[in-house]
Amino acid sequence: MSFLAKSPVEKTAGPYARRWWALLVLCLSLLIVVMANTSLIVAAPAMTADLGLSSSDLQWVIDGYTVPYAALMLLLGSLGDKYSRRGALLTGLVIFGAGSVMGSLVDETGLVIAARSVMGVGAAVVMPATLSLLVAIFPKGERARAVTAWTATSGLAIAVGPLVAGQLLRDHSWGSTFLVNVPVALLAVIGALALVPPSRAADMGRIDYVGGLLSIVSVGSLVYATIEGPHFGWGAGPVTAAVVAGIGLAAFVAWELRHPHPMLDVRRFRLRPFSGSMLAVLFFFFGTFGAIYYATQFLQFVLGYDALETGVRLLPLAGAVFAGAAATGWLTPKLGVKALVVAGMAIGTGGVFLLTRIDPASTYADFLAPMAMLGFAIGLSVSPATDTIMGSFPESELGVGGGANDTALELGGSLGIAILGSLLGTAYRDELTGLVGDRLPAAALETAKDSVGGGLAVARQVAQDPAGGARQAQTVVEAVHQAFAHGVAQTSLIGGIIMAAGTMIVFAVLPGRKAAAARQAADARRTEQADEQPERAGRPTGNRTGAYTDAR
After folding, report:
1. Which CATH superfamily is domain 271-511 in?
2. Most buried by CB count within 10 Å: which residue of 196, 240, 277, 342?
3. What pLDDT, on the 0 to 100 scale, is given for residue 520?
4. Would you say the pTM of this structure is higher than 0.90?
5. pLDDT given at position 523
6. Facing residues of 540 across strands?
7. Residue 243: in which H helix or E strand, if any?
8. What contacts 549, CB < 8 A, 6 or more positions away?
9. Domain spans of the chain?
10. Per-residue pLDDT tens digits for 268-297
C-alpha cells in the first residue's frame, strides 16, 4: 500500500481491524522518544566525567534535543497530515535512530550536542504522528482508552528510562544509553510497516509554510530563552531570544488570523475546553518534570544511589501512572473532563508541596509519596486533557493537533526544568556560601557552588589533605547535603505555588459537564449548517468540521 493512501477510517466501513496492535507500535515509538530525555538524567554524571562537561555544556547536551523537538512539531505534524502520517512516523524513527547511532560513537562535546539535535528532529516527527495516527485509526468510542494507553506510556518512560540507563551504565559507557534506542526504533519501523495503516488527511489545502516558519522561530526562541536565561543569566543571547520569541508570536497570531488555511487556527484558543486543556498540560508538566529533575539528583548525590538503584526507585511512579490511567478510564464518563483534570492537577500539586519537607536527614521513604502522587496525577489528568485537545481538531489537522499537545507538554517540561532548576541552584549556592564560604579557598568554593556534584568533588579533593583533610571533607559533604536539601525544599514551595495557581486557572477556564454538553450540541448544529454551505467566508468547510467539539 502507498504511504499516500487515505485514512483507513475513510477507506473502510468499520474500524481498522488491527488497531490495538497498531497502538502498541505507536506506544513503542513514543516510549523511546520520551526515554531519550529521562535516561540522560542518570547518564549525565558519567558523560560529565568522561567529556569534562561544564554546566553550560551539559545544559546544551539536554537542550540540543529539547529545542528542535519543541520548535518543529507543529510544522512537521502538518506535513504528516498532508503527505503521510505513517510515512512521517517511519521517517522520524529513522532520523531518531541515526542520531542515536551517532551519539553512541562520538566522543566530543560538540558532536554529542549535534547527535542530540538530530534525535530531537526525529522526535519532533514521531510525537505528533503517533497521536494523529491514533485518532485516525480509533473510532470515537474507543479513542479515550487509546489515548489513556498513550499517556500511560509517557509515564512509564519517565521511570523506565533511568532504569534501563542505570543497568547499562553498570557494565558499559554512557554511549550505550544512546545505542539502546536503535533496536527499539528498528522494531518500531518493522511494526509500523506491518501493523500501522497508511493515513493522510483528505482534501487538505496548501500547507501554511509561513505560519510554520513563524512557529519554529517563536517556540524555538522561547525555549532557548527559557532555558538559557534562568541558568546562565539574562545576557545578550537570552534577551535577544526572548524579544524574537515575542515578536515572532505576535507575527504568527496576525498571520494565522488572516490566512485562509492557517497552520494553527488561533481562534481555537477562544474555546474553553481546548485552551483549558492546553494550559493543564503545560502547567502539569512544568511541575512534574521539574520535581522529578531535582528529586532524582537528591537520590543520586545526597542518598548515594547509583544509576540503576535510582531507576529502580522511580518504578513506583510508573506504577502510579497505570493506576491513575485505570481510574480515569472509569471515572471520566461519570464525572467529566473538568473534574478529572483539576483533581489530577490538585494531587500533583500536593505531591510537589510534600517535597518542601525534605531535609538532610530525609530518606527514600520521604520521596515515595510525592513520586506516587505525581505518577497517579499523570495517569488521571493528562489523558482526558489530551483527548480533549485532539478532539478539537478536524481529521485534516490531526497532526497539527498532536503537535499542539506535544508542544504544550515539551514547553511545560522545559519551563519546569529551567525555572525550577535555576531556583534550586540559587538556593543551593546561597545556603552553601553561608555554611562553608569562609572555610574554602575562593576557587574551590566557586566549584562547589556550581552544582551538588561539584560540591562533592571538592570534598573528595579536600579529603586528600593528610593534615585533617578527612574531617574537613566531611564538613563540606554535610554542608553540600544541607544546602541541596534546603534548595529542594525552597524550590518545591515555589513550584507548588505555581502549580496551585495553574490548577485554579484551569478550574476557571475548563467548562463543566453541562456547559460542555451544550457547546457540543451547538457545535454539531453549526457543523450541519456548514455542510449545507460548501464555501463560507472564503474557507472550505473541511477546515472547520469537528474543529470546535469537546472530546469526552
Report:
1. MFS general substrate transporter like domains (1.20.1250.20)
2. 277
3. 55
4. no
5. 53
6. 535
7. helix 236-258
8. 391, 392, 520, 523, 524
9. 1-204, 208-262, 271-511
10. 999 999 999 999 999 988 988 888 888 888
Euclidean distance between CA atoms 74 and 273, whole angstroms: 20
Residue 516 confidence (pLDDT) above 70: no
Beta-carbon contacts of 522 under 8 Å, excluding residues fewer than 6 positions away, are none
Asked if 398 and 68 count as a contact pair (C-beta separation under 8 A), the reply is no
Distances in whole angstroms, Cα of residue 345 to Cα of each of 341, 342, 366, 431, 435: 6, 5, 21, 31, 36
pLDDT, position 546: 33
Are the C-beta atoms of 274 and 388 separated by less than 8 Å?
yes
Rounded Cα–Cα distance for residues 428 and 425 (Å): 5
Cα–Cα dist 511/503, whole Å: 14
Task: Look up residue 431 and give its three cell numbers.
Answer: 545556603
Q: Are the beta carbons of 27 and 149 closer than 8 angstroms? A: yes
DSSP state of 169: H
Terminal C-alpha separation, the chain = 33
Q: How far apart are CA 420 and CA 169, in angstroms?
A: 27
User: Which is it for strands 535-536 and 539-540: parallel, antiparallel or unpaired?
Assistant: antiparallel
d(CA 418, CA 151) in angstroms, rounded, equals 23
What average pLDDT does this structure show over 313-327? 87
Residue 536's beta-bridge partner residues? Answer: 539
Q: In the CATH hierarchy, which fold is given to the domain comprising 1-204?
A: Growth Hormone; Chain: A; (1.20.1250)
CA distance linking residue 46 with residue 185, whole number of Å: 24
**Locus of grid cell 518542601:** 356
Environment class of 551 (CB within 10 Å of its CB; exposed 0-12, middle 13-18, buried 19+): buried
Cα 118 versus chain centre, distance: 17
The SS3 call for residue 246 is helix
| Two domains, one topology: 1-204 and 271-511 | yes
* Residue 3 phi, psi dihedral angles, 5° rounding: -60, -20
| Residue that the C-alpha cell 483533581 belongs to | 343
Report how far residue 204's alpha carbon sits from residue 206's, in angstroms, rounded to the nearest whole number. Answer: 7
pLDDT in tens, 60-93: 888 788 889 888 988 998 898 888 999 999 999 9
